[in-house]
Design a protein that fits this description.
The complex is a heterodimer of chains A (about 120) and B (about 120). Chain A is mainly β and about 120 residues long. Chain A is built from no helices and eleven strands. In chain A, about 35% of the residues are buried. Chain B is mostly beta strands. In chain B, the strands form two sheets. In chain B, strands 2, 4, 5, 9, 10 and 11 form a six-stranded mixed sheet that branches. The chains are: A mainly beta (about 120), B mainly beta (about 120). The interface between A and B is medium-sized, with 30 and 30 residues.
Chain lengths: ~120, ~120
């Protein structure tokens, strides 16, 4: 079975632009979470979606938004890009709403560079 | 504010030696503690996890030790191998509320095992 897939793998944007990152969860998984991993640090939680509804939001500005589609795939959108948005963006999926004991499987990430 | 503190930042161990990575937390709402392994260019992969009602969990060469009263837990890698060279993250998940299912990561430990 395919794991979590993300596209694109790499992306270069300039300040002020908009970016859309895409994630396809493992088949049968209904929950998708997004994390930002800045170089040299651990991933930071951005959003969690379950059954197409937002179930959690981390400490990120409103420039960050996301949605989950009927097929459980997800998009992360970032508007008005800043240099500080340069990071690896990770998508994780789980069968149910991620909670104790619910394993979250991560994709390989999308590396975003903002110039 | 880093809710999960991890040390050391980097670790160099000889092949066959024991690698030890330590983590500490303050939030008593955390009740599930996974460890993730990340290779360059890949997303984090779940290695082993523990609940706070267990003091130790062993899976092959990997052992988690958990001290609930001290709010500390550690990963021990026995008989470390060059293939274990990766970045290791400890994490914690709260039991419920608005932050349900959210992974809080440590900053990571870059482990190098030399032959």
């Amino acid at each position: 079975d395919a794991g979590v897939t993300q596209s694109p793998t790499h992306l270069i944007k300039t300040r002020g632009q908009h970016v859309t990152l895409r994630c396809s969860p493992i088949s049968g998984h209904k929950s998708v979470s997004w994390y930002q991993q800045v170089l040299g640090q651990g991933p930071q939680f951005i959003f969690q979606y379950y059954e197409k509804e937002e179930r959690g939001r981390g400490n990120f500005p409103d420039r960050f938004s996301a949605r989950q589609f009927p097929n459980y795939s997800s998009e992360l959108n970032v508007n008005a890009l800043l240099l500080g948005d340069s990071a690896l963006y990770l998508c994780a999926s789980s069968v149910q709403l991620a909670a104790q004991g619910e394993t979250q499987y991560f994709g390989p990430g999308t590396r975003l560079l903002v110039l | 504010q880093q809710q999960v503190k991890q040390s050391p930042q980097s670790l160099i161990v000889q092949k066959g030696g024991i690698s030890i990575i330590n983590c500490a937390y303050e939030n008593t709402a955390f009740d599930y503690f996974p460890w993730y392994q990340q290779f360059p260019g890949k997303g984090p992969a779940l290695l082993i996890a523990i609940r706070p009602d267990v003091s130790e969990k062993k899976e092959g060469r990997f052992t988690i030790s958990f001290n609930k009263s001290a709010k500390q837990f550690s990963l021990h890698i026995m008989d470390s191998q060059p293939g274990d060279s990766a970045t290791y993250f400890c994490a914690a998940i709260p039991r419920g509320g608005s932050t349900l299912g959210r992974l809080y990561f440590g900053r990571g430990t870059q482990l190098t095992v030399w032959p």
